[in-house]
Write a structure and sequence with these properties.
single chain; mainly alpha; elongated; 75 residues
């Protein structure tokens, strides 16, 4: 009897969790909010470019992000 009750409870919880997945995603009327510049991965590209230039100038290396090695020529 307890196993049946546990199975019924587990099934009900699973159905409730899976039913909540139907609301995932962006609705068409919400896309204008997601397309705003503040929501981009880099909302301030000019500031990032300036920061990269400062980093490049101080480190005496090229790349700044994702490149190995320094200005000495070693890796």
């Amino acid at each position: 009897m307890k196993k049946m009750r546990l199975a019924a409870t587990a099934t009900a919880l699973l159905a409730a969790f899976l039913g909540g997945c139907g609301h995932i995603g962006v609705k068409p009327w919400e896309r204008d909010l997601m397309a705003r510049p503040e929501m981009q991965l880099d909302p301030y590209p000019v500031d990032s470019s300036i920061d990269d230039h400062i980093y490049f100038s101080k480190e005496a290396s090229s790349g700044g992000r994702g490149f190995g090695g320094g200005g000495c020529g070693c890796n």
